[in-house]
Amino acid sequence: MNKQNLLIYEFENLYFILDELKSSFNFNVQSVSKNDFQNLKFDNYLVLCQKKNKAIKNQIIFENFPVKITKLLEKINIEFLKKKFNEQSNINIGNYIIDINSRELILEKSKLRLTEKEINTILYLVSKKDSVSISDLQTNVWSYQAELETHTVETHIHRLRKKIKNKFNDENLIISTKNGYKIPPKK
């Protein structure tokens, strides 16, 4: 796994302190200036600043120094954990994003609240390349025995498709096939 990166933005004294201790960290430490910042190609970073800067995302602002190093490191690690949690909670499905934390299906600025079962159904369908049978969904999403005679899956998928059509005017996120249901791959 790639280490996360802590960029110390225009704060050399703090960089020198953290650079001395970097062998004890589970993240990389790098000093950056205003001029360097635009040229960086990091995907996984936090920027430690003394003042809020609207041009920088993923900031940790520390205005009040001095601060105990343990408190500083605790704050940095918490922010890395929050960032990782938020990144893992959003899953792209075609043009949509599923926010697992808020249980929403998002298309541009429109949001649709979903139930946990609806989220699990969509995620299970996305995880499969081929169509998923009703009995497979019964077993793996609803934890029902496949032999049970029930229309739970069909009813839930019908309602889910109707919600998606009403909110996003999309009838093709979940499609029916002769073998079950499927979410077609992105185009």
Give the SSE layout:
Blueprint: E1 4-9, H1 12-21, E2 27-32, H2 34-37, E3 45-49, E4 59-61, H3 69-89, E5 90-93, E6 96-99, E7 104-107, E8 110-113, H4 116-127, H5 134-140, H6 152-168, E9 175-177, E10 180-182
Parallel strand pairs: 1-2, 1-3, 3-4
Antiparallel strand pairs: 5-6, 6-7, 7-8, 9-10
Structure summarized in a few sentences:
With 187 residues, the protein is of the alpha/beta class. Helix content is 38%, strand content 22%.
Written description of the protein model:
With 187 residues, the protein is α/β, with parallel strands linked by helices. 38% of the residues lie in helices and 22% in strands. The longest helix has 21 residues. The model has no long low-confidence stretch (mean pLDDT 86).
> Major sheet: size, sense and barrel closure?
4 strands, parallel
Report the portion of residues in β strands: 15-25%
Structural class: alpha/beta
**Any idea what the shape is?**
elongated
Radius of gyration: 23 Å
N- to C-terminal distance: 30 Å
- Tell me the helix content: 25-40%
Low-pLDDT parts are none
Number of helices: 6
Give the rounded overall mean pLDDT: 86
Cross-sheet strand order for the largest sheet: 2-1-3-4
Number of strands: 10
